Amino acid sequence: MTLDASSILLLLLVLPFLGSLGSAFILNTTSRDLPVFVAGATTLLTLILTASAYPFVTQNGVLRFTAEWLPQVGLDFSLRLDGFAWIFSMLVTSIGFLVILYARYYMGKDDPIPRFFSFLLAFMGAMLGIIVSGNVILLSIFWELTSIFSFLLISYWHTNAAARDGARMALTITGIGGFCLLIGMLLLGKIVGSYDLDKILASGQLVREHPLYLPTLIFILLGALTKSAQFPFHFWLPNAMAAPTPVSAFLHSATMVKAGVFLLVRFWPVLSGTYEWFILVGLAGISTMLLGAFLAMFQRDLKGLLAYSTISHLGLITTLLSLGSPLSTVAAIFHMLNHATFKASLFMAAGIIDHETGTRDMQRLSGLYRFMPATATLAMVASAAMAGVPLLNGFLSKEMFFAEAVETHADSYLDVMLPYVATLAGLFSVVYSLRFIHTVFFGPLPKDLPIQTPHEPPRWMRVPIEILVVVCLIVGIVPAISIGPFLQTAVESVLGDQTPEYSLSVWHGINVPLLMSLIALLGGIGLYVVMRDYLSRCEDGPPYLRRLRGQRLFERVLVTVSWRWARLAESRLGTRNLQPQLRWIVVSGFVAATLPLYFSGFERRPIVFSAIDPAFGLLWLVGMALAIGAAVSAKYHRLAALIMLGGVGLIVCMTFVWLSAPDLAITQLLVEIVTTVLILLGLRWLPKRSPDRGAVMTLKSRFRRFRDLSLAIACGIGMSVVAFTVMTMPVPDAIATYFLENAYTEGGGRNVVNVILVDFRAFDTLGEIAVLGIVGLTVYGLLRRFRPADDSMELPEQQVSQNRFDADQPERSPGDMMRDYLLVPSVLMQWLFPVIITLSVYLFMRGHDMPGGGFSAGLTLSIAFLLQYLAGGTRWAEDRIRILPLRWMGAGILTASATGIGAWLLGYPFLTSHFRYLEIPLIGKVPAASALLFDLGVFSLVVGATVLILTALAHQSIRINRLRALEAKGEKR
């Protein structure tokens, strides 16, 4: 069986995520080889699929896969693979495979290996998603996923404070940049009128001439520059070196840090060629290139040196892209590939040194060539490529950079300075490369190493470095044969008709770029000889600038924003009382509702009461009286207020029945039952309040009450007027007509409300159940850390008197009276359990054609569980019923999402429903719709979220009883 081109593209994206799930959930094992095999096989298969797509790319130019998602607003799940995306995908998958092989021998015996490879494969999938996205919104989603998974990888050793701090810093900086990128992409889509990448790439002139060009450029650059660690956002990368070395070799050489410059190359035809582009991108690139190279010279940590050198080389690529010429773009793409190969090998070599010696401090390392000559030779070749030594790949792209630096691109001081800055940065790169080679591998034998006798690593641990170093040599010696065709394919996919003539020859004669290279090489050697003694004993960091650390600035800003400003805002605007907070919410809602009505010319209709049924009016008068009573009693008589509030809910339920809305009535009734019982359980732990009979009400208190009463009356009357006007005005030809006419023909159901929820507006419902799940988790988390007031921890007076009576009777024990009172109700509640489950199934199965559905059925089943907790207590119920609400919630959201993805796989828009009649023996034709599966997901999540909140409230009593037992034990002692 052969795969078509679009299937290859889809598998290329999906495989890493499947491998990640396999590593996380299937491979729950202590074995080291099994997770490595799954991760390696997944990556190798992805690499083979990527390589097999090359003929399609060369023949057709662009390989595409599109599945409709929200076609009405121009959002499709679209993937595209052109020459540039292909070569970058090959880079990610090939280095990813080598990193997995390397990690097999690097990771320690106590490290959770399945978790590591799960995160690594998930990151690879997110990175491939950025590369092959054909929709800029989809690209932004994968962009943020890389930030999340990189956070998990950097903090993999989460017991290490440096790893936690570095991960938090990386997530904060790149996450904020990702949010800016999303804004830029939305602006870009607004300018072009489409979020499709192909249409955007074809609209360069339109974008550059649009008034929104500059803000769009700034937001997109913020996303790209933060991800690629460009000045002034560069400081997160050195702090991310606390991650395991395989993570650094993958994320910080070939993938994550390359995502920013990948984005700049991808949108180069659209955004480049303006003075704003040259200044903004050029300033960031030149300053980063020079600053990174300068700081790299003074690092004592091997990975710190490599981190700052990475920053410098990324600045070099950014500088090339700022120049706006096609040749500079060719050089930028070429150097992205070269830098990934020699930098990944250097990170791996640094990991081997750390692995075999126990340290990365260059002032403690020396003479390692005698212990590990093969590793030293490989590291020296890779370092020479980093320095730009001839006959290595780094020399070729750096020569192309020097050639572009001497050309005139804009009338600016930046352009005039560029040749000198480029030569100086090249000189610095020779210095830190020489320091890496000479300090670590030559000189006297090392002393005071954590591992006294270093040695070569296992054979297969060194193989990835050997492969990468061989690539550096082959590309450096025969570039036209080895990398030339692939580079040409990538360049043509970016530049199109602007693709220039360029040469990958090793020798171009004696020219200015060659002289710049010689000056950098010789000057770097001389500067290192002068600085060698100083570098062997200096403190970490450059002279006079050691205390100026980006980490300190970041932490101070973080403390200022998240602590000082938050404290200031809380002191000025916040309060511990709920009433002022509710007042601000109500006022904001009132203003937000009033202003649009005022400016749109809202016409108040005369209120005519002749059409109101007296019985219906009386019902609502009772409801209003109960609402007012609940408000008056809420402070000191909470139980009475809750009962009256439940009465208001029942009247709303009766209103729905009166107005022929049975679906809403069922849902309202079930919600009222569940929320009333849950709130009743929660009231037990609120602090007691008693009215102060002797207190005199002050003028300030009277004014506050009058103000709140006036606000409540104004909002109530306003909502009543709006609701009455809407319900009495002539019904326009609205969308309701469409739903009524198409509910059965398009959704396969006669219950229009349910068809809207699970078919027409299923995407809204998916978001709503996700929010419900978040609310459940939040309530559970808050209650887990909730500690009630001291007076609430005491037993209620009624229970105290009951226990006292039981204690006075010799044949009774405390709690018998309460069990006697609940004997009959508890038996009834236990007998009702299967009945309510049957009712839940009935409501679920009939929901598509009659009142019911997944939400109502989920609430009904939750009531069944709730009654068991009330009947027998928490321990009794959980000893007999294994609920696991988190799994219910997870299964629900996955089932609902899988329904939409299934429609995608069949070529339909996301969450498209299908229905047909099934012939069942002895029953006949039965209607069946795919929306039933979506409704099953809703049902499962509602049950899980409700029971999770119930569990959190119920376990509060267990914790209090445990605390009482501990206190009693302490008193006895």
Query: Roughly what percent helix?
Result: over 70%
| Mean pLDDT over the residues | 85
Residue windows where pLDDT falls under 50 for at least 5 positions: none
The number of helical segments is 41
- Major sheet attributes: 2 strands, antiparallel
> How many beta strands in the DSSP annotation?
4
Overall shape? globular
**Structural class from helices and strands?**
mainly alpha
How would you describe the overall organization of this protein?
The protein has 973 residues and is an all-alpha fold. Helices cover 73% and strands 3% of the residues. A two-stranded antiparallel sheet has the order 1-2. Strands 3-4 form a two-stranded antiparallel sheet. Helix 17 (326-357) packs antiparallel against helix 18 (373-387) and helix 33 (762-784) runs parallel beside helix 41 (931-972). The longest helix has 42 residues, at 931-972. It is globular, with a radius of gyration of 34 Å. The model has no long low-confidence stretch (mean pLDDT 85).
